[in-house]
Design a protein that fits this description.
Layout lengths: L26 E3 L2 H5 L8 E3 L2 E3 L1 E13 L3 E7 L6 E6 L3 H10 L5 E11 L2 E11 L4 H20 L38 H11 L7 E2 H7 L5 H13 L3 E3 L5 E4 L4
Parallel strand pairs: 1-4, 6-8
Antiparallel strand pairs: 2-3, 4-5, 4-7, 5-6, 7-8, 9-11, 10-11
Helix pairs in contact: 4-6
Length: 256
Amino acid sequence: GGGFMNTDFGFSQATPQRKESNRPDNVVPCTIAQIHRMGEGEDHMTVAGLEVQYVTVVGLVTHVDQQSTKVSYTVDDRTGPPLEGHIFATEPEEQARILSQLVEGTYVRVVGSVRSVDGRRMLKTFRAFGLTDLNELTMHLAEVIHTHMALLVDSKKAPAEDRVDGGGMVKPEPMDTSTFGGGVANNSLGLEPKQNMVYELIRECRTTIGISLDEVCAKVKSLSRAAIKDVVEFLSNEGHIYTTMDDCHYKATDGF
């Protein structure tokens, strides 16, 4: 893989541009040690045999450097040597927003793609979220272990491209929606049953990046993808949910 390109891969950009259209579109939780274990000459990560497009890492911000075209930082999760990352942004407002999330001495969740420059691993970052709850550290490690083990088990059952959904997590089992009937749902928001079903599913997700539309569709088998998208749009317009790392990942405004 090549070095960092000075592109419009900005902090506010919804989705990154990919040079290789045949690469999988997934986000997989990992540790810095896993990134550093990439073999010489490899330009992409694999986790349990799955090719990874984007990774999410949680760690302590140890250094931040603001430049005219980007913000560089170093993050350390104590599993390996600290990892250097870059977020390209030229507008002062964008840089200020980035710096509000990347504060030395605080914990952060970063999402990006791994690059190799002169034998060093770096993270071309497109999202950074300052942690507000340190329980996310434990949750992230649990996600790393769960994803790795589940992929190892599932690798015997399906091809790599079928093992992880668009959100980068192992494909879940379908949700039992047989208990959701017609009429008005019994909930404090006054949502219809299908709206409340999708809302509660999004609300139960406790990770910073939220739950992806693909994950919701995989769990809610009683609704078509088009119907789920309509519900998600309604919930977003009503202010019940919001997008996180891109336009296809959601968290509830009143999450717990």
